[in-house]
Automatic annotation (TrEMBL):
Swiss-Prot/TrEMBL keywords: Flavoprotein, FMN, Oxidoreductase
Binding site for FMN: 95-97, 124, 146, 174, 256, 278, 311-315, 334-335
A GO MF label: FMN binding
Protein name per Swiss-Prot or TrEMBL: L-lactate oxidase
Active-site residues, Swiss-Prot/TrEMBL: 280
Assigned protein family: Belongs to the FMN-dependent alpha-hydroxy acid dehydrogenase family.
EC number(s) reported in the record: 1.1.3.15
Domain FMN hydroxy acid dehydrogenase: start-end pairs: 16-385
Length: 388
């Protein structure tokens, strides 16, 4: 996809009568109008006082890009190589569970939009639709699978094996959510979609999970939900458990939720293939460090030995540039595409992701950068530092 004046003018013409807002903040407002309170606040909200959610955004504002001029940016190539595969842009759709509470298409709509744009889709363990069904609607398009490492090791092993069989190219193991955080909105609303049977599609279709039930979940959903609640996470896991993952998959393994450089070193020591610096979009540890502040120290610890990705708070092209300049190989985006889904299913997700790519492409060009290799810390200044 090439973005230049011609494409941009076309965008302006179309957006005159577009049904989706361009600005993230307006997207959230419109999603609030169309969603019921429970699902809206489940997606939009964070843990505790939501200080970390706000800190994520503030951390982006602390850095400023210093554009360069007269650098022939007419030919731009923002391809990135990750685990032997080449992607057009350093952007992935973050794993987001229970998308059926947002739109009837759920993950299938988001996955199809990702496939259309060739943006890798990270399917969540907590998806409403099974990982096989998501894979089917994506054809050959790139996809990764996110694992919630169940207390039931048979289920964890089965999910890993199913993902490999269904053509997923990497496994993202989320470490920061062995249990749900203190989420005040959801507690106030008494809203937890899983207890309504949402977001457990991967378990209901899993032979290892089904084998533990006394009756098929089609005849007794309540038993299945109760068993899911018992085995969803495992807070007793340690670094010594990581060989289990290797035993059950040949795919590259990334750890999601790393924030401390010491944990990045441990990941390397244990032969992990990649890291996603993330605080789960401020949804788990309220008061945790902003992701952009955590990124630099993790990148320094890793020293280029494995890819370091990041998410939490990416809203615009300039945010992507700052994260990449601070050493991320690629970034993931969560809530923006979910609000796109709320407004228009697949079409809404396509709109949001395409805009983010267009914004990134144009901002890169205007700042004088025609490839990802142009990005490093020297292109940024801290907002409170004297320049030159
Ligand atoms: C509604 C919702 C559900 C999520 N579900 C998952 C999940 O199933 N697995 C996971 O690893 N992360 C999950 N996340 C976290 C995202 O993968 C990602 O870390 C976060 O949304 C990034 O922040 P952003 O929303 O500010 O872009 C979820 C986030 C949201 C908003
Ligand atoms: C019982 C916890 C399930 C959480 C799965 C979805 C998720 O990650 C989120 O942030 O919400």
């Amino acid at each position: 996809m090439h973005f230049g004046n011609r494409v941009q003018f076309e965008l302006y013409r179309r957006f005159k009568k577009a049904k989706y807002p361009v600005r993230y903040e307006e997207l959230v407002d419109k999603a609030r109008d169309v969603l019921e309170e429970g699902p809206f606040y489940y997606v939009e909200g964070g843990a505790g006082a939501e200080d970390t959610g706000r800190a994520n955004r503030r951390a982006f504002q602390k850095w400023q890009i210093v554009p360069r001029m007269l650098r022939d940016v007419s030919k731009r190539d923002f391809r990135v190589q990750l685990f032997g595969q080449t992607y057009d842009y350093p952007l992935l759709l973050a794993p987001v569970g229970v998308q059926s509470i947002i739109h009837p298409e759920g993950e299938l709509g988001a996955a199809k939009a990702a496939a259309e744009l060739c943006v890798p889709f990270v399917a969540s363990t907590a998806s409403t639709h099974s990982l096989e069904k998501i894979a089917r609607v994506m054809g050959d398009a790139p996809r990764w699978f996110q694992l919630y490492w169940s207390r039931d090791q048979d289920v964890a092993a089965s999910l890993l094996e199913r993902a490999e069989r269904a053509g997923y190219a990497a496994i993202v193991v989320t470490l920061d959510t062995p249990m749900m955080a203190w989420r005040e909105n959801d507690i106030n609303q008494g809203y937890l979609p899983f207890l309504l049977g949402e977001g457990i599609g991967n378990y209901l279709s899993d032979p290892a999970f089904r084998a533990k039930l006394s009756k098929p979940p089609e005849t007794d959903l309540e038993e299945a939900i109760l068993y899911w609640a018992q085995i969803f996470g495992n807070e007793s896991l340690t670094w010594d458990d990581l060989p289990f993952l290797r035993k059950h998959t040949r795919l590259p393994i990334l750890l999601k939720g790393i924030l401390h450089p010491g944990d990045a070193e441990l990941a390397l020591k244990h032969g992990i293939d990649g890291i996603i610096v993330s605080n789960h979009g401020g949804r788990q540890v309220d008061g945790a460090i902003a992701v952009l502040d955590a990124l630099g120290p993790v990148v320094d610890a890793v020293k280029g030995r494995i890819p370091v990705l990041m998410d939490s708070g990416i809203r615009r092209g300039a945010d992507m540039i700052k994260a990449l300049a601070l050493g991320a190989s690629a970034v993931l985006v969560g809530r923006p595409y979910v609000f796109g889904l709320a407004l228009g299913g697949q079409d809404g997700v396509r709109h949001v992701v395409r805009n983010l790519l267009a914004d990134f492409n144009l901002t890169m060009a205007l700042a004088g950068f025609s490839s990802l290799a142009d990005l490093n810390r020297s292109i940024l200044v801290k907002a409170d530092q004297l320049f030159l």
